[in-house]
Every structure is written in structure tokens, then in C-alpha cells.
User: What shape does this take?
Amino acid sequence: MTPQSDGAARATPARRPTIKDIARRAGVSESAVSFALNGRPGVSQGTRDRIHRVAEDLGWQPNSAARALSGERSGCVGLVLARPAHTLGVESFFLQLVSGVQEVLAARKVALLFQVVEDIEAECAVYKRWWAEKRVDGVLVVDPRSDDPRPELLDSLGLTSVMIGAPAEGERQVSTVWADDSAAMASVLAHLYELGHRHVVHVAGLPGLAHTERRINSLRTQAGRLGLTAIRSVPTDYSDAEGAEATRRVLDSDAPPTAIVYDNDVMAVAGVAVAAERGIKVPGELSIVAWDDSALCRVTHPRLTALVRDTSGFGRLAAEELLARLDGGPVRSLQAELPHLEPRESTGPPSSGR
Amino acid sequence: MTPQSDGAARATPARRPTIKDIARRAGVSESAVSFALNGRPGVSQGTRDRIHRVAEDLGWQPNSAARALSGERSGCVGLVLARPAHTLGVESFFLQLVSGVQEVLAARKVALLFQVVEDIEAECAVYKRWWAEKRVDGVLVVDPRSDDPRPELLDSLGLTSVMIGAPAEGERQVSTVWADDSAAMASVLAHLYELGHRHVVHVAGLPGLAHTERRINSLRTQAGRLGLTAIRSVPTDYSDAEGAEATRRVLDSDAPPTAIVYDNDVMAVAGVAVAAERGIKVPGELSIVAWDDSALCRVTHPRLTALVRDTSGFGRLAAEELLARLDGGPVRSLQAELPHLEPRESTGPPSSGR
DNA sequence: CGAGGCTACTAATGCGGTTTAGCTCATGTC
DNA sequence: GACATGAGCTAAACCGCATTAGTAGCCTCG
Assistant: This one.
């Protein structure tokens, strides 16, 4: 193969410097370099400084593979998203979460391994493989479920992990970062109650997810407390299609609600579209609340009242807890800041006619 | 620290099996195991089969660090997203792209390292660090710009890479996967022209991006060819806010257009909201086209005519090209399937009054 | 029948770090 | 002045795999 015809040929790139190079230039042994660069005792301050200077000069960075092989850290944490491909990408939640996670990880030079899979079985398989390959030091786990198999698996593998979204069940060595969905639901209902709504429907997300269950339960409890009569939750898969479908069914029922709470922004927007389609005035004849704020909620007409969460802050919190755990910290359960309701134009008093 | 009080303590997890374990169980040397498991010659079929069985039994997986250290592959590719945190997460483009990328990578057991940074300088720093740490074998690069510094950097580092979105400039060793934005813009304009529109505005994306420039140029060319009179492009940052703002300015001008083409779905939806706000009928008084389809385009009222691209297919194509390059394939420039227009309810003939 | 060649395997080395054991020399102690 | 001590450094082993350089045994052939 001639150099000029080989598509993959290129000028030899600069060689990566190693601690051996540093040792030679600084006139010390490789071990001294390792000690100095890792801040361990065994080298004088003078030598230490000299080694640091040389390393800087050479632009040395530790070879992550070598470090992972000898030390026990790979400098990498993982995040798996189990979602069928077609439901991906509409919600802003994940990218925001990830951007928060990154902020914290990047500061500590920890990389994030990301994988999208079809279902939870595939997700578990990924954890097993990552563990066997020693690819990650720990993982962030999203979408906790009621009766979730993952904590047990992660525990048995000894993979340090942080669950994002629901408090831990049982005695697992899994930290948790969660938001108080119950209190949030209570604040949404309080808002609607004050406006005069007595008949509210909750278009919920996937039934298996822990936070869905918590929201549904909270809805029941609050309804009892406030003395609301007709309330119920309708499960969906979070897609715009099912959100619209659920809205149609609910509006077609004998006693349609005066307000609907949607478990994500996409479904809420779909709900607005269905109302528009039928000539139902929002908020005059129907009030709408979206769980999770995003640009979406601001581009509809009317703009949507939404439950605002600091999603990227949530990500930061989770990443910090994971790093703390990797540093030997205890298993903890951390609660994120309580979401607050941002009233906009999609909620108002119900029309007296109904 | 006593075991029972140590939060991080846990039952010793199963030890990872190594090729040494396999060698012992199979009664051969470690090298024989390595040969057998990597499909190299030097072992008889019988021994090969036996080794494979033992490896299977033990649930062996290659330690990625060890492999990266001895072989030259890390089994990992990278993707950096340079976006200010607040503009993240609204577009469906990236998650869809990533999900396509994953499909291909997962099949080959290649991991994806993902990073979100603020700007292109930080992006370049990440490439340098990844290279120095030998963390990735190659990278996928998104959001190509006119006058992009990244191909040169990647080339000098010798980091195998695939640009997603624009054909390569110059003589860089960088493959490209791109869509024909010019032809796509032409098809959008043809559609509007046939409906009778002669005055079209293009609410474009970020001015520095290569595909933005291509779309703008194509708009000019086509306008000349079709004999459209008043046409122009307005740059934005892709956000709903700027999309709405641009729409207001355009509608307030002396000669408002009869149709607007938006460079992404979010801005198009924002445009619909502005029209609704002002009581302008869509498509009666204003036709709207969104570049990129998503759930968003289907939940508005009316539903939006959109330019549909197979985004996850795009991701698959890019990932395949990257793997091919890593296997020694030549630098190529691949064109993705031409986007097609999906006419929905937001486009129609212009009102004669205008 | 011995040289040469092939097959099937083993031993040894290296990748780039970390870590343990050991070594040298100056210092303090009684 | 003999001896323990500790600071400051080096040599060597090791992590788990890939790879190169053998080596032993068998077959072929002049």
C-alpha cells in the first residue's frame, strides 16, 4: 500500500508523552514521577515541583487505559437510557439532566459513557458488560420503577450507583436523588382548587415508573383531603399520540373535567392542540397544567402553566453524589429542591356553565 | 473504619475472570486463549472450541483497560456537543441522532463517550484531552461551521473522525456524512411556489453553521431561478425566543411574506404561536414550513408541514463510516438520503388579498 | 535418513501506569 | 561511636491482555 493512495494514511501524529519521558527529562525514576504527580509522599518538594514543570512542558496526561488497569479506577461513569427509539428526543428532560451531570463530572475529569437501549433487560445487560469489562466506576440510573430489578443487580455486581428519581427501596447499596412528587402534585392541585376546579384529570406517564405511582397516589390523597369529587389518572406512554388520545377520551366522557394535569410537556401541548381542534377555549373551558417546563410550554398559545424543576441542578446533585460515593462516602438519599408552579395563561377559573 | 459502619462496604462482588482463569481451566497457555478468543491462527479447532466454552462458562469479557493498553484500540468513540446549556434539549435532533449511532456501535460493542460543553474552544480542549488520555479511538463531530477549526485539529492529532452535516473542506483526513440541504431547500420552495407563494422568508439558524449557509445560498439561487421577488433569510440562535422575535419583526414589516420557512421545529411552533396571538390564520394568511419533523410538528394546531429527515438513519450512517475508518477504510464523503417534504395543514395557497 | 517446513502450542515481553519492597544517606540518641 | 530512624529515592513486580519469538513434534521429500 503506497502512502499517497492509502485513505487512512496521515502524517505521524505527535507521540503521547509517558511518565518514562518525564522521568528521563527530570532525571529521576518513574516511580518518583508517579508519586509526585499523584501527590503522594516520598519525594522532596523541590523534586516534586521540577517533575510537575516537566509534565506540564510535555503536555502529559495520564493514559486512561494504563491507569484503569493498574489503579482500580477507570475514570468513567455510565448512564443508560432504556427507551424505545421512537419515544426519544421529544422531552427536554434528559439532555438537561445530562448537561448538569457533565458540569460536575467534567470538573473532576470524569468521562460519561452513554448508551441508549430498547428496554430494561438490555439495560441490565449493559451494566453486566460494563462491569465485566471494567469500563465504568459507577453508574447513574434513571426511570426508577416500582419493583425495580436494577438495584439488586447493581448491588450484586458491586457497581457503585445513584438512582435518579425515587427513594431507594430495601437495603440496597444504592444512593438516591429524588424530588418530592407528592408535594409537587399537592401544590398543583392547590392551585387548581383555589381557582375553583373540582373535577381534575391526571394524564399520567408510564404506569411502571415509581414517580408515576407517587403522583397518582398523591392525587388520590389530596383529592380526599380537599374534597374533590371526580378525579382520576389515565396512564400513557408519554408520547404526544397517547397524550392526545387520552385527552379526547377524557373530553368525550359524560362528565368532562374542568382541568387536566399532564405528566410531561409534550402531552400537555398535544392536549392544547386537541382542545383547539374542538374549539374548546383554554383556559376558559379547560385549564391545563404541564409537569416540567420547557420551551414547549412557552411557544404554545396560550402559554402553559407548568411545574418547574431545576433539571440540570438535579443532574449536578446526582453526579456529585456519585463522585462522593466513589470517594468512599456513605449511601445517602438526597432530596432535590421542591418543584414550583409557574402559573401562565393556560389555567384560570372554570366556566360557571360546567 | 469498621466494616459494618462503612457506608460503602458491601459483600465482596464476584471476581472478574481473566484469560489466566480460562487458561487454567482449559489446560492451555494464556497465549493460546488469546489466540482462540481473537480468532487468530495457531490453535486447533478442538482446542479453540474448548476455550470458547470455558470462556462462556466463566462469563468472561475482555477487560477494556487491558485491551486498550496492549492493543491500540480503546473500544470507545466520542461525541461532543458544544451548546450553551440553556439551548439544550428542545430539539429532538440530537437524541435521535445518538440513538441511531448507538444502534450501530452497540452491535460492535463499541462504547460512546458523550460530553456537553459550552463552546467550540472547550470542544477542542476535550478532543485534545481524549487524545492525550488515549480514551477514544475516534470521534463524531457535529455542527460543522464555515471556517471550522476542528478538522485541522483532529487531523494533527491523528484522531479518526467523521463530520456530520457538511462536506469536508480542504484536504483533511476527515470523513463526512451529509444531507443535501440545497436540494431540500429547493423542494420546499417548489412546494410553496406551486401553491402560489411569491414572497417567502427563511428564519434561519446560527449564521456560522455550514448547513445554515448552504440553505441560505440555496434560497437565493432558487429564488432567482423561480423568479421570486422578495425573499430573505433572518438568522437566529435556534431558540423559541428568537424564532418568535424574528416572526414578529417579519410580520410587522411593510411587505409581510405569505410563507415562512423555519430552520427547526421549535421555531416553527413558536411562529405558529405568534400567528395565533395576532389572529393571523394559518395557512389562510400565512403558510409555515418546519425544517425537521418531530412530535412537535404534529401536536400544534394546525399540524405543521415539515421537511422529514431520517435522523437516526443519519446517525447510523455516520457510526458505520467511523467504524469503517477505524478498520482502515478510506476517507469518504457520504450523502444521506434526500429529505422529503411532508405536507400537512400549515401550508396552503396564499390569500388573494395579499 | 536427515534437512526443511508446517502445525500447535508455550514462554517472554511490552503497553503505561501504580505500588511495594528495599536501598542509601544524613540525622539524632545514649 | 554504634545503632535505630526516617526522609528521599530506585528497582521490580503487577494489572490483563496482545504479540513476538521461540520450541516440540510430525510430515514430506530428495
In short: The radius of gyration of chain A is 26 Å.
